[in-house]
Amino acid sequence: MNLRKLFIYQSHKNNDMEQLDKSSASLENNPGINSYIKNNIKDKNSYTYKSGRISPNLAENIEFIRDAFEAVKNFDLVIREFKVKLSDRFVDAFLIFYDGLANKEYINRDILNPLMTQGADTMPQGSSLEEIIYQCMLSQAPNSKIREMQTIIELVGFGNCAVFVDGCTCAFVADIKGWSARSVGKPISEAVLSGPQEAFCETVMTNIALIRKILKDPNLIAENIPIGTKSKTPCALMYINGVTNIALVREAKRRLTNLDTEYIFSSADVEMLIEESTLFPLPQVLKTERPDRAAAQLADGKVIIIVQGSPFVLILPATASDLAESAEDNYVRIAEANFMRAVRLIGCFLALFLPGIFISVALYHHESIPTDLLFAIEATREKMPFPIVLELVIMIMSFELIKEASIRVPDPIGSTLGIVGGLILGQSAVSAGIASPLLIIIVSITALGSFAAPSVSVSRALSVMQFAFIFLGATAGFTGIALGVFLLSLYLASSRSFGVPYMSSSEGSDNPFVVSPIWRREKRPSALAPQRSLKQPRISRKWKGDA
Amino acid sequence: MTKSPTLTFKSLDTACIITNLLTYRIFTRIPSLFPRTAGSAAAVSALYSAIIAFLIIWIISTTFCRLSHKNILDTAGAVFGKIGRKLIALIILFYLGISSIIALGEFSEFTKLVSFPTAPLAFCAIFFFVAATLGAFGGFNALSRMHRLFIPLSVSVLTFVVISTLWKGDLSNLFPILGRGAENVFGKGISGVIMYTDITLLFLIAPSQNTPQENKRTLLTASAFSFLIVIAVMFAFTVRIPYPISAEGQFPVYLLFKQIHYGRFFQRIDAILLFAATLSGMLYLSLNLFFFTNILRTDFGLSDTKPVIFPLALAFFFCVAGVKFISAQTLNILLFCTGFGVLAASLVTILFTKVRKKLTNEKI
């Protein structure tokens, strides 16, 4: 028997050994409440203090709760004492909830009203008080009996209401969350012309429901993994049992359960905490606000993580092929989808390389462009005071300023900003002889290219990386650009996302250059090594054979 | 059934590596090498040496691909014992070292010629040095994926050169058909086989691949495709650049590229060639450096390859850009000797394996 057990044993001489073992196990398995109680609770002789469990003595519980929740300082904490009306007597009780987090209407209607006024006319023979209250009196549907104080603290902090009754060694916790939350709205960063117009919101349960609504698969698993030692932010790890690679699920779970941080605020925090490399230029985890895209990725054998409080769902693993995809690809005709993908890829190419190539041509490879064009460029640059590299960097930074400012300003001023930034600044820069017209065109095309990127994170990554290519182009022309391409590719090729090579080639449907029709997407991406690689037989349009 | 999400070595990766190993010298020396010995029969000579090289590859691969996933050094060890294995490893190391120095020098010269005529050679070499060092650090899997990405580009550029120059060629440049004589074409022309010695590098990685049949099919198809490219470039070069000019140019493909005329806008598109050649060279040097350090690890007791990569690359760099204690001619002779040594050693190993298998019915 260790010292902790001995201490509990001496304090609870009247309790039997079974309870002692339970109490001790509870303490040992609950490091959170251990340290919490040690630091905060004053009455160190109480049962709750020693065991971490609810005492049958209501006064002891209320004292503990007041200390644990700092009831004196927290004005939004509601502790309501009342009496439960039974057929033959009244029993003392209290409930606790946070005003604003729990729904008061439900509390009055489904908890206080039945307990205080209705009572139980006939008691089932031999039933304990716990069973009578739980089975006959509380009408709130998501209701559970909890015995550990730490769990109750967490649940109340997440909008639940806990009812303590004298003589009961459990609390009745009702799930009556009632905080203000945004409803399901339209996607903003992944808007499509055709296709569903639903987007994820900040509530994890709603987001899970949005995906379940699409897949309707009983094998779809949603595991709850709270993250944050203090915030206990609910995160749902979702995958399809029998499809997703078990090793991938295990790896995702291992990373999530091994995060030792106090608070989690959004999915971006989780993304940064679980990704392989922080300095990697491109996203290693996909983010989407579209339930249809998340569902499609689940069907391909990927894993998704939904974080409470974030409308962006994380999809893992991410490979270079995934970055070329857009939600719109699945909702337009194939020729159109392929054309749009080609345009997007060209846009990405321009956003990354055009400024560097321009610098290379202007500084080192004059012979690469026709003489007439070269003369035209030189003529426009004749009176320019700055070196061409500085001129380009100034103009790109100006554009980045406009882009950043346009996100911050209110919508009505947005168009004004566009006019001031784009038209006046560009025109004035040329008139003042600070920038050449050709350079303005180069910067504009680069900007348009970056906007064509399928996701905002890719667009930003391209904007950052283009400076490296400007530097390399300015240093060594096309040789420098080739070195940059080599090193970037090497970095991408030697990186992995959750064990899957970032530049893995797949035999499935994720060719980065081509969108195939749905009847050709028979296989799941082979790089994911899914448990079932076939999504559909080779001939999925059986009606064609009948004709 | 649960599978782990690991990459299997894809046939496309192997094919791309083979293509680069057999074609990277097109950018630097192959097209002008054959006219020097064969004159106007350069294309015939190239075809002849390609056929011999293909036969050698076929002989090696036929036995090698059945050797239950053993590389050439493991096989040498099984046939000749430890000393034989070390000797062959040493020959391959010498070849890799000399080939790396020559390739680094040639690609740096090429870059200097196209981009920086006034810059010192060291400035151009430094880019290849950086790429090779980091590429070798990246490891074989990363390099194989990069081959898949860039070699199609390199092949496209070469195809573009061939198509763009061939239709303006003069077929009379092919005559006399035996150029400087049959002895030069078929006798001295055999030395052209050494240009393809790098293919033996692939026998150092065979155990990573899938089934023996798949290995062999990939190896032979990719080799045939690469030889087709070499012969096509050689043919285009011969019909477009008449002998003896064709034997003089330092970077023949660059010379060929200068012949392309697609109107005023596209008249100067050398940059594309520079880009493809640079990437091809960087990939080759990275792979060479990787194999060099890998042989040091497997056969000479090196525990970790990473600390050796940088000093080794630096040594190659100084051989090219620093004090030139070996002349280019000596290097070429050494390349010929070691290349011949590597090919001979590989062939002997394979033939001995075959004989021993037949005699003893032993599984090697």
CATH class category name of chain B = Mainly Alpha
Instruction: Return the average pLDDT of chain A rounded to an integer.
Output: 83
The biggest beta sheet of chain A, please? 5 strands, antiparallel
CATH 2nd-level architecture of chain B: Orthogonal Bundle
Shape summary of chain B: globular
Q: Could you tell me the radius of gyration of chain A in angstroms?
A: 31 Å
The largest β sheet of chain B comes out as:
none
pLDDT < 50 stretches of chain B: 1-9
Query: What are the segments of chain A in which pLDDT stays under 50 over at least 5 consecutive residues?
Result: 1-32
How many domains, in number, for the residues of chain B?
Answer: 1
How would you concisely characterize the structure shown here?
Helix content of chain A is 49%, strand content 11%.
Describe it for me?
The complex is a heterodimer of chains A (547) and B (364). Chain A has 547 residues and is α+β, with helices and mostly antiparallel strands. Helices cover 49% and strands 11% of the residues of chain A. Chain A has helices at residues 3-11, 17-29, 31-40, 47-51, 58-68, 104-118, 129-137, 149-157, 204-215, 246-257, 267-274, 291-299, 320-323, 334-363, 371-381, 388-408, 411-431, 437-451, 456-493, 543-546, and strands at 77-85, 90-98, 143-146, 161-165, 171-174, 220-224, 235-240, 286-288, 303-307, 313-316, 496-497, 500-501. In chain A, the strands form 3 sheets. Chain A has a 5-stranded antiparallel beta sheet with strand order 1-2-4-5-3, sandwiched between helices. A 5-stranded antiparallel beta sheet of chain A has the order 6-7-9-10-8, with helices on both faces. Chain A has a two-stranded antiparallel sheet with strand order 11-12. In chain A, helix 16 packs across helix 18 (437-451). Chain A starts with a helix and ends with a helix. Chain B has helices at residues 11-23, 30-38, 42-64, 72-114, 121-138, 140-166, 182-187, 212-240, 252-257, 270-299, 306-321, 328-360. The two termini of chain B are 32 Å apart. The longest helix of chain B has 43 residues, at 72-114. The model of chain B is unreliable at 1-9 (pLDDT under 50). Chain B has a single domain (18-353), classed as Orthogonal Bundle (Hydantoin permease), CATH 1.10.4160. With 364 residues, chain B is mainly alpha-helical. Helix content of chain B is 70%, strand content 0%.
